[in-house]
C-alpha cells in the first residue's frame, strides 16, 4: 500500500510537514548562521569564530544539564547559580595554591551536591522543581557572595588549571573536546542505556513508568544530579578560561540555556527535550547574539530576542505536539 | 468447568478480602478463586467495588483485611511490581502507556532488553531485539502493525490495548487483569479487543475482566462474579446465561443490597 501512495499529493504534503516539523527551525538556524557569516562585519574572522565556539561550549554544557533534568520532566532553574558557586569554590582553591585537580574535584562536588539536594527536595520533600531550584539558586548565590565577599578571585593562575579551557589537545581546543565529551555522554545515556530509557519513560509518563516497575523517583534524582554536575563542569571551564571567578559569573547563561533547550525541542524530536537539538540551538543562539552585537545592535536587543525565542519555541512545540496527537 | 474448578488447586485465591478507604467500605469479605486458563468476568453497578477488588489483586492497593494465596502459597502484594513478579499483570482503564513513546518502548517499559557495557552500572539497550520481540508479541495477538517505532498516540484504541497486553505478555504474566478494556472503544475496536482476549485464553492465559457490557461477558467469560455494595453475591459458570439474565442478576442484587 505504502509503495503506491508515496507519490500521492497528500502523502507528499505529509512528508513535507514531517520535514518542516522536524527540521524547520534547524534549517532556519542554518540560514541565520549563513546570514551573519555573509553580512555581519568581522563575523567570519578566526578570532571571532573561536570566541563564538568557546562561548557556545559554556552555554551548551550548561544547557545539556538542563536538558537532562527536563528529560525527567523537572525544571532546573538553579543551573547558573550552581555554576557560579562552583566556579567561586574552584577559584578560591586555585588562588589558595591548591592543585588544579583539587579545584576541579571541588567544583564538580559542589554541582553534584546541589543537584542531589534538588533531587532530594523534589522527590522526598515533594517540593515542585520550579520552587526547589529557585530556592537552591538563592542559597547558592548567597554562598558565592559569602565566599568571595562580593569581589572576584583574579590572579596568575597555573596553566594546569587555565589550560583546561584555553589549551588544545591534538590541535583541537580543549573547550570543544569537553563539549564533545559531555554531549556524547548525555546523548549516549539517554538513547542507548537502560537508565536513559527509564529517565525518558519517567519524564513522558510518570505514573505509567511507576506502574511498569520503574524507580521514577530515582530517575528524577539522577536527572537533577547530572544537571548539577554539568553546572560544575561549566564552572571549571568558565573560571579556567577567564582566570577568575566571580559570584555572578554564570548568571547571564540561565536565560540562554533555557532558550537553547526550548529551541532545541522544536527540532529533530519535536516537543521532546533532546541533546542534539539543545546543542544545535546553543550554536544558533550564540551566533545570533554575536552577530547582533557585530551588526551594531544595542546589548538589550539580545534579551528581547531571547524572550521571543523562548515563547515562540514553546508555542511551536505545542502546536507540533497537537498535530502529532491528532494525526492518525 | 465446574468439575475442574472443584478439583485443581486455584491459581489465585482470595479469602475474606476487605478494602476500606477511610470510612468508605469499598470491598467487604470477598472470597474468590481463580483457576488456570479461566476467563472470569467481574460485573456490578458503578461503585460496587470491582475496581477496588482488582486493585488488591494487582498490588495497587493493599487490602484492609483478608489474605491471598497463589498456587497455595501465601502472597502479599505491596506494589504493582510485587504483583508482576508473581505473574499478575494489570491493564488499567487508562492503559498506563506513554503516548509519545514508541510501541517497542511501551512494550518493554521497565523491562528493557539489554547487553552489558564496560561500565557495569550502565546497560546498553538492545533496540533491534526489542523491536523484533514487540512485533512477535503483537503478531501473537494477530495485530498487524509493521512499524514498532510508531508512537502509541498514533494507534487506535484497540491497537493500544494490544500494546498494553503485549507488555503483560512480556512480563510473562499468568493472570492478566483488565479493567473495562472496551469502555472507550467503537464497535470495530471492541471486536478487536474481544479477539485479543480470546487469543489470550487460547494461549493458556488466565484473564480477569471487568466489564459493563453484558454481551461481551456472555461471549467471552467462563465464569461471572457479580458484586454489589462491596460484596460478591453471584459467582457461577456462565453456561446458558444470557446478557439479559446477567442484567437481572445485577439489578436484583442491587435491590437486595439497598
Ligand atoms: N481512592 C478512593 N478513596 C475513597 N473512596 C474510594 C476510592 N476508590 C473507590 N472508592 C469508593 O469505593 C467504592 C467502590 O468503588 P470502585 O471500586 O471504584 O467501584 P467500581 O469499580 O465497581 O465502580 C465507591 O463508593 C467509591 O466511591
Ligand atoms: Mg471501576
UniProtKB/TrEMBL annotation, chain A:
<protein>
    <submittedName>
        <fullName>Monosaccharide ABC transporter membrane protein (CUT2 family)</fullName>
    </submittedName>
</protein>
<dbReference type="Pfam" id="PF02653">
    <property type="entry name" value="BPD_transp_2"/>
</dbReference>
<feature type="transmembrane region" description="Helical">
    <location>
        <begin position="130"/>
        <end position="152"/>
    </location>
</feature>
<feature type="transmembrane region" description="Helical">
    <location>
        <begin position="278"/>
        <end position="298"/>
    </location>
</feature>
<dbReference type="InterPro" id="IPR001851">
    <property type="entry name" value="ABC_transp_permease"/>
</dbReference>
<feature type="transmembrane region" description="Helical">
    <location>
        <begin position="52"/>
        <end position="70"/>
    </location>
</feature>
<keyword id="KW-0812">Transmembrane</keyword>
<keyword id="KW-0472">Membrane</keyword>
<keyword id="KW-1003">Cell membrane</keyword>
<dbReference type="GO" id="GO:0022857">
    <property type="term" value="F:transmembrane transporter activity"/>
</dbReference>
<feature type="transmembrane region" description="Helical">
    <location>
        <begin position="222"/>
        <end position="241"/>
    </location>
</feature>
<keyword id="KW-0997">Cell inner membrane</keyword>
<feature type="transmembrane region" description="Helical">
    <location>
        <begin position="304"/>
        <end position="321"/>
    </location>
</feature>
<feature type="transmembrane region" description="Helical">
    <location>
        <begin position="101"/>
        <end position="123"/>
    </location>
</feature>
<keyword id="KW-1133">Transmembrane helix</keyword>
<dbReference type="GO" id="GO:0005886">
    <property type="term" value="C:plasma membrane"/>
</dbReference>
<keyword id="KW-0813">Transport</keyword>
<feature type="transmembrane region" description="Helical">
    <location>
        <begin position="20"/>
        <end position="40"/>
    </location>
</feature>
<feature type="transmembrane region" description="Helical">
    <location>
        <begin position="172"/>
        <end position="190"/>
    </location>
</feature>
UniProtKB/TrEMBL annotation, chain B:
<protein>
    <submittedName>
        <fullName>Monosaccharide ABC transporter ATP-binding protein (CUT2 family)</fullName>
    </submittedName>
</protein>
<dbReference type="InterPro" id="IPR017871">
    <property type="entry name" value="ABC_transporter-like_CS"/>
</dbReference>
<dbReference type="GO" id="GO:0016887">
    <property type="term" value="F:ATP hydrolysis activity"/>
</dbReference>
<dbReference type="Pfam" id="PF00005">
    <property type="entry name" value="ABC_tran"/>
</dbReference>
<dbReference type="InterPro" id="IPR050107">
    <property type="entry name" value="ABC_carbohydrate_import_ATPase"/>
</dbReference>
<feature type="domain" description="ABC transporter">
    <location>
        <begin position="12"/>
        <end position="254"/>
    </location>
</feature>
<comment type="similarity">
    <text>Belongs to the ABC transporter superfamily.</text>
</comment>
<keyword id="KW-0547">Nucleotide-binding</keyword>
<dbReference type="InterPro" id="IPR003439">
    <property type="entry name" value="ABC_transporter-like_ATP-bd"/>
</dbReference>
<dbReference type="InterPro" id="IPR003593">
    <property type="entry name" value="AAA+_ATPase"/>
</dbReference>
<keyword id="KW-0067">ATP-binding</keyword>
<dbReference type="GO" id="GO:0005524">
    <property type="term" value="F:ATP binding"/>
</dbReference>
<dbReference type="InterPro" id="IPR027417">
    <property type="entry name" value="P-loop_NTPase"/>
</dbReference>
Amino acid at each position: 500500500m505504502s509503495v503506491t501512495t508515496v507519490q500521492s499529493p497528500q502523502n507528499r504534503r505529509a512528508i513535507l510537514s514531517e520535514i518542516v516539523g522536524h527540521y524547520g527551525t534547524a534549517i532556519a538556524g542554518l540560514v541565520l548562521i549563513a546570514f551573519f557569516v555573509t553580512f555581519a562585519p568581522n563575523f567570519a574572522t578566526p578570532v571571532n569564530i573561536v570566541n563564538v565556539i568557546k562561548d557556545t561550549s559554556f552555554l551548551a554544557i550548561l544547557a545539556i544539564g538542563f536538558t537532562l533534568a527536563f528529560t525527567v520532566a523537572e525544571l532546573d532553574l538553579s543551573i547558573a547559580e550552581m555554576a557560579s558557586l562552583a566556579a567561586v569554590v574552584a577559584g578560591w582553591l586555585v588562588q589558595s595554591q591548591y592543585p588544579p585537580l583539587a579545584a576541579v574535584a571541588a567544583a564538580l562536588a559542589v554541582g553534584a551536591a546541589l543537584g542531589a539536594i534538588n533531587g532530594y527536595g523534589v522527590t522526598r520533600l515533594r517540593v515542585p522543581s520550579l520552587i526547589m531550584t529557585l530556592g537552591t539558586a538563592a542559597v547558592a548565590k548567597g554562598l558565592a557572595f559569602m565566599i568571595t565577599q562580593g569581589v572576584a578571585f583574579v590572579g596568575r593562575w597555573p596553566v594546569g588549571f587555565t589550560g583546561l579551557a584555553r589549551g588544545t589537545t591534538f590541535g583541537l581546543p580543549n573547550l570543544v573536546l569537553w563539549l564533545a565529551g559531555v554531549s556524547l555522554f548525555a546523548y549516549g545515556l539517554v538513547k542507548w542505556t537502560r537508565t536513559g530509557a527509564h529517565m525518558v519513560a519517567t519524564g513522558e509518563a510518570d505514573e505509567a513508568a511507576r506502574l511498569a516497575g520503574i524507580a521514577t523517583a530515582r530517575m528524577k534524582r539522577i536527572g537533577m544530579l547530572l544537571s548539577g554536575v554539568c553546572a560544575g563542569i561549566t564552572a571549571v571551564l568558565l573560571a579556567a578560561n577567564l582566570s577568575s571567578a566571580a559570584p555572578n559569573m554564570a548568571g547571564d547563561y540561565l536565560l540562554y540555556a533555557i532558550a537553547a533547550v526550548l529551541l532545541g525541542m522544536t527540532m529533530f524530536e519535536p516537543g521532546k527535550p533532546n541533546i542534539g537539538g539543545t546543542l544545535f540551538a546553543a550554536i544558533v543562539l550564540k551566533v545570533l547574539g554575536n552577530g547582533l552585537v557585530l551588526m551594531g545592535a544595542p546589548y538589550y536587543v539580545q534579551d528581547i530576542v531571547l524572550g521571543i525565542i523562548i515563547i515562540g519555541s514553546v508555542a511551536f512545540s505545542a502546536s507540533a505536539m497537537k498535530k502529532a496527537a491528532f494525526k492518525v | 468447568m465446574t468439575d475442574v474448578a472443584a478439583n485443581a488447586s486455584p491459581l489465585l485465591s482470595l479469602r475474606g478480602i476487605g478494602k476500606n478507604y477511610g470510612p468508605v467500605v469499598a470491598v467487604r469479605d470477598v472470597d474468590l478463586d481463580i483457576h488456570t486458563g479461566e476467563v472470569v468476568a467481574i460485573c456490578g453497578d458503578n461503585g460496587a467495588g470491582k475496581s477496588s477488588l482488582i486493585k488488591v489483586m494487582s498490588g495497587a492497593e493493599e487490602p484492609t483485611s483478608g489474605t491471598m494465596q497463589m498456587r497455595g502459597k501465601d502472597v502479599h502484594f505491596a506494589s504493582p511490581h510485587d504483583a508482576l513478579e508473581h505473574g499478575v499483570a494489570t491493564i488499567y482503564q487508562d492503559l498506563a502507556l506513554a503516548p509519545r513513546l514508541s510501541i517497542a518502548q511501551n512494550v518493554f517499559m521497565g523491562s528493557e532488553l539489554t547487553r552489558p557495557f564496560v561500565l557495569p552500572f550502565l546497560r546498553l539497550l538492545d533496540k533491534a531485539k526489542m523491536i523484533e520481540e514487540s512485533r512477535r508479541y503483537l503478531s501473537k495477538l494477530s495485530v498487524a502493525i509493521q512499524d514498532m517505532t510508531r508512537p502509541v498516540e498514533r494507534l487506535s484504541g484497540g491497537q493500544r490495548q494490544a500494546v498494553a497486553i503485549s507488555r503483560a505478555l512480556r512480563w510473562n504474566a499468568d493472570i492478566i487483569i483488565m479493567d473495562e478494556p472496551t469502555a472507550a472503544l467503537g464497535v470495530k475496536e471492541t471486536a478487536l479487543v474481544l479477539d485479543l482476549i480470546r487469543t489470550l485464553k487460547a494461549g493458556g492465559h488466565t484473564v480477569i475482566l471487568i466489564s459493563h457490557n453484558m454481551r461481551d461477558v456472555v461471549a467471552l467469560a467462563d465464569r461471572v462474579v457479580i458484586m454489589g455494595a462491596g460484596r460478591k453475591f453471584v459467582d457461577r459458570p456462565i453456561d446458558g446465561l444470557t446478557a439479559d439474565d446477567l442484567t437481572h442478576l445485577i439489578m436484583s442484587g442491587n435491590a437486595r443490597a439497598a
